[in-house]
Protein backbone atom coordinates (compact mmCIF):
# COMPACT_ATOMS: atom_id res chain seq x y z
CA UNK A 1 0.00 0.00 0.00
CA UNK A 2 2.96 2.34 0.42
CA UNK A 3 3.03 3.17 -3.27
CA UNK A 4 3.28 6.73 -4.15
CA UNK A 5 1.06 6.36 -7.17
CA UNK A 6 -1.49 7.26 -4.51
CA UNK A 7 -3.73 10.21 -4.32
CA UNK A 8 -2.73 13.40 -6.09
CA UNK A 9 -2.13 15.96 -3.33
CA UNK A 10 -1.70 19.72 -3.25
CA UNK A 11 1.53 19.94 -5.34
CA UNK A 12 0.23 17.68 -8.14
CA UNK A 13 -3.18 19.37 -8.26
CA UNK A 14 -1.51 22.79 -8.24
CA UNK A 15 0.67 21.67 -11.15
CA UNK A 16 -2.36 20.35 -13.05
CA UNK A 17 -4.05 23.72 -12.45
CA UNK A 18 -1.02 25.54 -13.88
CA UNK A 19 -0.93 23.16 -16.84
CA UNK A 20 -4.63 23.81 -17.55
CA UNK A 21 -4.20 27.58 -17.17
CA UNK A 22 -1.72 27.32 -20.00
CA UNK A 23 -3.60 24.87 -22.22
CA UNK A 24 -7.31 25.18 -21.43
CA UNK A 25 -7.99 28.85 -20.68
CA UNK A 26 -9.61 30.43 -23.74
CA UNK A 27 -10.82 27.08 -25.08
CA UNK A 28 -14.51 26.59 -25.80
CA UNK A 29 -16.14 23.48 -24.34
CA UNK A 30 -17.60 21.30 -27.09
CA UNK A 31 -18.96 18.64 -24.78
CA UNK A 32 -18.50 16.52 -21.68
CA UNK A 33 -18.83 12.74 -21.89
CA UNK A 34 -19.55 11.13 -18.54
CA UNK A 35 -18.50 7.50 -18.81
CA UNK A 36 -18.53 6.54 -15.13
CA UNK A 37 -21.97 7.70 -14.04
CA UNK A 38 -21.17 7.37 -10.34
CA UNK A 39 -18.47 10.05 -10.73
CA UNK A 40 -20.98 12.83 -11.45
CA UNK A 41 -22.23 14.12 -8.10
CA UNK A 42 -24.53 16.92 -9.29
CA UNK A 43 -27.52 16.95 -11.65
CA UNK A 44 -28.47 20.62 -11.86
CA UNK A 45 -27.18 22.35 -13.84
CA UNK A 46 -26.61 19.40 -16.20
CA UNK A 47 -23.15 18.83 -17.70
CA UNK A 48 -24.60 19.76 -21.08
CA UNK A 49 -24.86 23.35 -19.75
CA UNK A 50 -21.07 23.60 -20.15
CA UNK A 51 -21.31 23.23 -23.93
CA UNK A 52 -20.38 26.45 -25.74
CA UNK A 53 -18.88 28.10 -22.66
CA UNK A 54 -15.25 29.28 -22.56
CA UNK A 55 -12.73 28.36 -19.88
CA UNK A 56 -11.93 31.68 -18.20
CA UNK A 57 -9.81 30.47 -15.27
CA UNK A 58 -8.51 27.48 -13.33
CA UNK A 59 -8.28 27.32 -9.54
CA UNK A 60 -7.32 24.80 -6.88
CA UNK A 61 -9.16 24.35 -3.57
CA UNK A 62 -7.22 21.88 -1.43
CA UNK A 63 -7.10 18.78 -3.64
CA UNK A 64 -10.05 19.95 -5.80
CA UNK A 65 -9.45 21.26 -9.34
CA UNK A 66 -11.83 23.96 -10.56
CA UNK A 67 -12.37 25.06 -14.17
CA UNK A 68 -14.35 28.29 -14.38
CA UNK A 69 -16.36 28.20 -17.61
CA UNK A 70 -17.94 31.63 -17.98
CA UNK A 71 -19.13 31.47 -14.37
CA UNK A 72 -20.19 27.82 -14.37
CA UNK A 73 -17.66 25.62 -12.57
CA UNK A 74 -16.48 22.16 -13.57
CA UNK A 75 -14.93 20.86 -10.33
CA UNK A 76 -13.18 17.52 -9.89
CA UNK A 77 -11.59 15.61 -7.02
CA UNK A 78 -9.22 12.92 -8.32
CA UNK A 79 -9.52 10.85 -5.12
CA UNK A 80 -7.03 8.06 -4.67
CA UNK A 81 -6.58 6.51 -8.09
CA UNK A 82 -7.62 9.37 -10.34
CA UNK A 83 -5.59 11.31 -12.87
CA UNK A 84 -6.03 13.91 -15.61
CA UNK A 85 -4.68 13.14 -19.08
CA UNK A 86 -4.41 15.98 -21.56
CA UNK A 87 -5.07 15.11 -25.21
CA UNK A 88 -3.90 17.39 -28.03
CA UNK A 89 -6.54 15.98 -30.33
CA UNK A 90 -9.74 14.15 -29.40
CA UNK A 91 -11.43 14.62 -32.78
CA UNK A 92 -10.87 10.99 -33.72
CA UNK A 93 -11.60 9.58 -30.27
CA UNK A 94 -14.14 6.79 -30.33
CA UNK A 95 -17.20 7.01 -28.10
CA UNK A 96 -16.63 4.91 -25.00
CA UNK A 97 -18.94 2.43 -23.37
CA UNK A 98 -19.56 2.83 -19.64
CA UNK A 99 -18.00 0.17 -17.46
CA UNK A 100 -15.00 -0.49 -19.70
CA UNK A 101 -11.54 0.59 -18.56
CA UNK A 102 -10.34 3.44 -16.37
CA UNK A 103 -11.92 6.36 -18.28
CA UNK A 104 -14.41 8.27 -16.11
CA UNK A 105 -15.02 11.60 -17.86
CA UNK A 106 -13.89 13.18 -21.11
CA UNK A 107 -14.05 16.92 -21.68
CA UNK A 108 -13.75 17.97 -25.32
CA UNK A 109 -12.91 21.45 -26.58
CA UNK A 110 -13.96 22.92 -29.91
CA UNK A 111 -11.49 22.39 -32.80
CA UNK A 112 -8.86 25.06 -33.32
CA UNK A 113 -7.72 26.53 -36.63
CA UNK A 114 -5.54 23.46 -37.17
CA UNK A 115 -8.60 21.21 -37.00
CA UNK A 116 -7.42 19.52 -33.84
CA UNK A 117 -9.87 19.28 -30.95
CA UNK A 118 -7.95 19.17 -27.67
CA UNK A 119 -9.35 18.15 -24.31
CA UNK A 120 -8.66 16.00 -21.32
CA UNK A 121 -9.72 12.70 -19.82
CA UNK A 122 -10.22 11.93 -16.16
CA UNK A 123 -9.23 8.35 -15.48
CA UNK A 124 -9.35 6.25 -12.34
CA UNK A 125 -7.29 3.17 -11.63
CA UNK A 126 -8.30 0.44 -9.20
CA UNK A 127 -11.60 -1.01 -8.13
CA UNK A 128 -12.58 1.64 -5.59
CA UNK A 129 -14.24 4.37 -7.63
CA UNK A 130 -14.11 7.63 -5.73
CA UNK A 131 -13.27 10.19 -8.42
CA UNK A 132 -15.88 12.94 -8.26
CA UNK A 133 -17.07 15.62 -10.68
CA UNK A 134 -19.38 18.51 -9.88
CA UNK A 135 -20.99 21.17 -12.10
CA UNK A 136 -21.89 24.12 -9.87
CA UNK A 137 -22.53 27.86 -10.04
CA UNK A 138 -20.28 28.34 -6.99
CA UNK A 139 -17.42 26.04 -5.88
CA UNK A 140 -18.59 26.49 -2.26
CA UNK A 141 -21.60 24.31 -3.18
CA UNK A 142 -19.22 21.33 -3.28
CA UNK A 143 -19.40 19.79 0.21
CA UNK A 144 -15.69 19.05 0.50
CA UNK A 145 -14.69 22.57 -0.56
CA UNK A 146 -17.00 24.37 1.86
CA UNK A 147 -15.37 22.62 4.84
CA UNK A 148 -11.70 23.04 3.83
CA UNK A 149 -9.16 24.37 6.30
CA UNK A 150 -6.62 27.06 5.35
CA UNK A 151 -4.45 26.49 2.30
CA UNK A 152 -0.82 26.00 3.37
CA UNK A 153 0.47 27.97 0.37
CA UNK A 154 -1.71 30.99 1.12
CA UNK A 155 -0.46 34.10 2.95
CA UNK A 156 -3.10 33.43 5.65
CA UNK A 157 -1.31 30.25 6.74
CA UNK A 158 1.04 31.73 9.35
CA UNK A 159 2.88 30.02 12.25
CA UNK A 160 0.24 31.60 14.52
CA UNK A 161 -2.55 29.92 12.55
CA UNK A 162 -0.77 26.59 12.87
CA UNK A 163 -0.30 27.17 16.60
CA UNK A 164 -4.07 27.70 16.89
CA UNK A 165 -4.70 24.47 14.97
CA UNK A 166 -2.51 22.27 17.19
CA UNK A 167 -3.33 23.86 20.55
CA UNK A 168 -5.42 21.51 22.67
CA UNK A 169 -5.50 18.81 19.97
CA UNK A 170 -5.26 15.21 21.21
CA UNK A 171 -4.67 13.97 17.66
CA UNK A 172 -1.42 12.46 16.42
CA UNK A 173 0.28 15.03 14.19
CA UNK A 174 0.26 12.70 11.15
CA UNK A 175 -3.55 12.45 11.27
CA UNK A 176 -3.97 16.16 11.90
CA UNK A 177 -1.89 17.09 8.84
CA UNK A 178 -4.04 14.82 6.66
CA UNK A 179 -7.36 16.25 7.88
CA UNK A 180 -8.70 18.45 5.06
CA UNK A 181 -10.96 20.35 7.47
CA UNK A 182 -7.86 21.39 9.42
CA UNK A 183 -5.35 22.16 6.63
CA UNK A 184 -6.25 21.83 2.94
CA UNK A 185 -4.34 19.73 0.43
CA UNK A 186 -1.92 17.52 2.37
CA UNK A 187 -2.39 13.77 2.13
CA UNK A 188 -0.54 10.61 3.07
CA UNK A 189 2.62 11.20 1.02
CA UNK A 190 3.34 14.83 1.84
CA UNK A 191 2.48 14.46 5.53
CA UNK A 192 5.29 11.85 5.67
CA UNK A 193 7.61 14.26 3.85
CA UNK A 194 6.72 17.23 6.06
CA UNK A 195 7.27 15.27 9.28
CA UNK A 196 10.61 13.97 8.03
CA UNK A 197 11.70 17.53 7.17
CA UNK A 198 10.53 18.71 10.61
CA UNK A 199 12.34 15.78 12.31
CA UNK A 200 9.10 14.92 14.10
CA UNK A 201 7.50 11.59 14.99
CA UNK A 202 4.22 10.98 13.13
CA UNK A 203 2.74 9.73 16.43
CA UNK A 204 3.51 12.92 18.36
CA UNK A 205 0.40 14.43 19.94
CA UNK A 206 -0.29 17.75 18.18
CA UNK A 207 -1.20 19.61 21.37
CA UNK A 208 2.18 18.79 22.94
CA UNK A 209 4.23 20.79 20.41
CA UNK A 210 6.37 23.63 21.77
CA UNK A 211 6.37 27.02 20.03
CA UNK A 212 9.75 26.16 18.49
CA UNK A 213 8.38 22.85 17.18
CA UNK A 214 5.33 24.62 15.70
CA UNK A 215 7.64 27.08 13.94
CA UNK A 216 9.74 24.20 12.57
CA UNK A 217 6.63 22.33 11.44
CA UNK A 218 5.23 25.43 9.72
CA UNK A 219 8.52 25.94 7.89
CA UNK A 220 8.58 22.24 6.88
CA UNK A 221 5.00 22.35 5.54
CA UNK A 222 5.50 25.49 3.44
CA UNK A 223 8.97 24.54 2.16
CA UNK A 224 8.11 20.91 1.34
CA UNK A 225 4.98 21.85 -0.61
CA UNK A 226 6.57 24.82 -2.40
CA UNK A 227 9.55 22.73 -3.48
CA UNK A 228 7.25 20.00 -4.78
CA UNK A 229 5.24 22.56 -6.77
CA UNK A 230 8.48 24.02 -8.17
CA UNK A 231 9.76 20.58 -9.23
CA UNK A 232 6.51 19.94 -11.07
CA UNK A 233 6.27 23.35 -12.74
CA UNK A 234 6.25 23.19 -16.52
CA UNK A 235 5.97 19.41 -16.65
CA UNK A 236 3.36 17.80 -18.87
CA UNK A 237 0.49 16.28 -16.91
CA UNK A 238 1.68 12.79 -17.82
CA UNK A 239 5.09 13.36 -16.21
CA UNK A 240 3.85 14.66 -12.86
CA UNK A 241 3.45 11.27 -11.19
CA UNK A 242 7.02 10.12 -11.80
CA UNK A 243 8.28 13.54 -10.69
CA UNK A 244 6.31 13.22 -7.46
CA UNK A 245 7.85 9.82 -6.82
CA UNK A 246 11.42 10.95 -7.51
CA UNK A 247 11.09 13.93 -5.20
CA UNK A 248 9.91 12.03 -2.12
CA UNK A 249 12.52 11.38 0.58
CA UNK A 250 10.73 8.90 2.86
CA UNK A 251 7.25 8.19 1.52
CA UNK A 252 7.14 4.93 -0.46
CA UNK A 253 10.82 4.28 0.30
CA UNK A 254 10.63 1.56 2.98
CA UNK A 255 13.94 -0.28 3.29
CA UNK A 256 15.92 2.38 1.44
CA UNK A 257 18.54 4.63 3.01
CA UNK A 258 17.53 8.01 4.40
CA UNK A 259 19.38 10.55 2.26
CA UNK A 260 19.77 12.84 5.27
CA UNK A 261 21.32 10.47 7.83
CA UNK A 262 21.79 7.07 6.14
CA UNK A 263 19.48 5.12 8.47
CA UNK A 264 17.01 2.64 6.97
CA UNK A 265 13.53 4.03 6.28
CA UNK A 266 10.80 2.07 8.05
CA UNK A 267 7.04 1.90 7.76
CA UNK A 268 3.96 1.46 9.90
CA UNK A 269 0.99 -0.17 8.19
CA UNK A 270 -2.68 0.57 8.78
CA UNK A 271 -5.83 -0.98 7.33
CA UNK A 272 -5.86 1.11 4.16
CA UNK A 273 -2.55 2.96 4.06
CA UNK A 274 0.96 3.05 5.46
CA UNK A 275 3.34 5.73 6.66
CA UNK A 276 7.09 5.86 6.21
CA UNK A 277 9.63 7.56 8.48
CA UNK A 278 13.31 7.62 9.44
CA UNK A 279 13.98 6.49 13.04
CA UNK A 280 17.22 8.50 13.39
CA UNK A 281 15.75 11.74 12.00
CA UNK A 282 12.32 11.49 13.61
CA UNK A 283 11.99 9.13 16.59
CA UNK A 284 15.30 9.28 18.44
CA UNK A 285 16.44 6.08 16.72
CA UNK A 286 13.52 4.03 18.05
CA UNK A 287 11.32 2.11 15.59
CA UNK A 288 7.60 2.80 15.96
CA UNK A 289 5.35 -0.18 16.72
CA UNK A 290 3.95 -1.68 13.53
CA UNK A 291 0.42 -2.71 14.38
CA UNK A 292 0.37 -5.28 11.58
CA UNK A 293 2.63 -7.63 13.56
CA UNK A 294 0.72 -7.33 16.83
CA UNK A 295 -2.49 -8.18 14.92
CA UNK A 296 -0.95 -11.35 13.49
CA UNK A 297 0.24 -12.50 16.92
CA UNK A 298 -3.20 -12.39 18.53
What's the layout of helices and strands?
Layout: H1 10-23, E1 29-34, E2 55-61, E3 64-69, E4 72-77, E5 82-87, E6 103-109, E7 119-124, E8 132-136, H2 143-146, H3 159-166, H4 173-178, H5 188-197, H6 211-232, H7 240-247, E9 266-269, E10 274-277, H8 279-282, H9 291-297
Helix pairs in contact: 1-6, 3-6, 5-6
Written description of the protein model:
The protein is α+β, with helices and mostly antiparallel strands. It folds into 2 domains: about 10-145, N-terminal domain of MutM-like DNA repair proteins; about 160-295, Helicase, Ruva Protein, domain 3. The protein is about 30% helix and about 20% strand. The protein has 9 helices and 10 strands. The protein has helices at about 10-25, 145, 160-165, 175-180, 190-195, 210-230, 240-245, 280, 290-295; strands spanning about 30-35, 55-60, 65-70, 70-75, 80-85, 105-110, 120-125, 130-135, 265-270, 275. It has a 4-stranded antiparallel beta sheet, with no helix packed on it. Strand 9 (about 265-270) and strand 10 (about 275) form a beta hairpin. Helix 5 (about 190-195) crosses helix 6 (about 210-230). It is elongated. Residues about 1-5 have low confidence and may be disordered.
- Give the spatial strand order of the biggest sheet: 1-6-7-5
Unreliable spans: 1-5
Give the end-to-end Cα distance, rounded to a whole number of Å: 23 Å
Helix content: 25-40%
Mean pLDDT: 92
Descriptive tags:
Helicase, Ruva Protein, domain 3, 9 helices, 19% strand, disordered N terminus
Amino acid sequence: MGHCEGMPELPEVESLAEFLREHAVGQVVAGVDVVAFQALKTVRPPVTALGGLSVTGVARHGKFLDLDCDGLHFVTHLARGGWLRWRDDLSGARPVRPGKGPLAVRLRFAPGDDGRAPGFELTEAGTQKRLAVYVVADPAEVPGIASLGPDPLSAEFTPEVLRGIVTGSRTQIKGLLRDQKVIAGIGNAYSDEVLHAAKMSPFKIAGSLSDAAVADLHEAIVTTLREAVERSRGLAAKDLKSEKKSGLRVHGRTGEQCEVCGDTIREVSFADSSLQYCPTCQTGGKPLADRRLSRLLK
